[in-house]
Amino acid sequence: QQRGVVGLVITLFTLSWALGGVFWNYRRANKEAERARNARSEAVEVADQILFVIQDELINISGTSSVQHKLLKSSHRLLERLLVGSPNDEQARYSMVVSHSHRGVLAFRQGRLTEAERELGMANESISILLNSAPDNRYYHYSLSTILSELGELAQARGQLDRAQEFFQRDLKLVRKRQEIEPNNLEAQDKLYASYVRLGDLAQIRGELEDARHHFQLGYDFAKRRLQKDPTNLQILISALCRLGDVALASGDLDAAEK
To answer: Which of 188, 208, 224, 236 has its CB 3.0 to 4.6 Å from that of 203, i.e. a possible disulfide?
Structure first.
């Protein structure tokens, strides 16, 4: 019995020692996993900062296309490597959508239309997948709206006017919904005005002057309401009046054009 007890104690001690080793390995693995998660998060933040600088600082500055291209290439490669190891990382997937979108816009501005269509198409497909899992995410809706408007501009540049109209109408539907949810969001209001203008410009190109006037009038009415909240933003009101004047002139209504 004593030998049996001693054997049991030795066995329990061995199991306890083994369990301690397993627990230590578990803690180390958790720490390493946590470090890996933190490193991935920091890497995505770096990529986001690059995309933010391009979007808010460089995109409207002439002569920076080559710099934008290099920065986009670097951030895109970084995100690709992150997604190989963590394909379900939602933050990295969304950053990749923004990267594809920026690359498409830059290619479009440089006249590389096939590349622009490929990049914007990938952005559209990816953001649609993200929206399936998070249908109320307003950032996803904002990105989809931007992508749709760019795809519409691209289709218009290629003479695919029916396709452009489809993209613009989908964008308008999204923007209207966002403006209803966030009625005081000035950015959403500006996007709504831009959506009316895009559809009006397209209708005028197609010779559908009444439809163009309708959308420009919607833009003008909205611009007046927008001006009540931000009296300094006269530009959109001037833009709407110019377009109403142009379409009236094209219709032969000289009095309305002069007014």
So the answer is: 208
